[in-house]
Amino acid sequence: RKEVEQDPGPFNVPEGATVAFNCTYSNSASQSFFWYRQDCRKEPKLLMSVYSSGNEDGRFTAQLNRASQYISLLIRDSKLSDSATYLCVVNRGDSSYKLIFGSGTRLLVRP
Amino acid sequence: DVKVTQSSRYLVKRTGEKVFLECVQDMDHENMFWYRQDPGLGLRLIYFSYDVKMKEKGDIPEGYSVSREKKERFSLILESASTNQTSMYLCASISGNYGYTFGSGTRLTVV
Q: CB of A10 within 8 A of CB of A107?
């Protein structure tokens, strides 16, 4: 079983749609959670951290469910520029800063 | 903003060559990482360093070594390049619990 699992997609949605991505992780000791965005042939960039209480940044909302070891990302009012791959990322639950990356969910927003 | 610079965006090397990939960060971060990214496999940790001259193997260290002689510079060395090391190589650094900052990546092709 992969340590971080994501649906690879692609999710193909029209502009203005709301889309949600889910991710599960296997290590119950993980304490830090992130969503990264990666454009084609570019490096991953931090989109947002995910906090236990849930957090929002503009059109993006992240939720964490520790009991189910599940993280979600909701994108409202999708823009063409949101087309990218979204990586779910967790730490290893030890004292290091090593992170584990999911393989990503690809989003295509069409006009 | 933290800047992580990788010396080459694209590199083509021959089988058996010794290859050096350089990474420099400008924010005095202690922790630096080398990942490779392959389609369907996501990002996999090769090596990381938590201080000058301190290093630890990641999940896939075979065929690689690293050097960290100065805090700002973390080098990845392919001792004898092979075709299965054709990949995108990503360097990252981190301070605190705020997620990684990645370099722009080096796309290495071994022929």
A: yes
Interchain contact A27–B (C-beta under 8 A): no
Cα–Cα distance between A102 and A53 in angstroms, integer?
22
Nearest to B97 among A32, A41, A43 (CB): A32
Residue pointed to by tokens 């080098």:
B75
Contact across the interface for B90 and A45, Cβ inside 8 Å:
no
Residue A93 has phi, psi (to 5 degrees) of 80, 10
DSSP 8-class letter at B83: G
pLDDT tens profile B22-53: 999 998 889 999 999 998 888 999 999 999 98
- Output the six-digit token pair for B40: 């369907």
Is the pLDDT higher at A94 or at B36?
Answer: B36
Q: A interface mutation test: which of B35, B37, B38, B109 has the most A CBs within 10 A?
A: B37
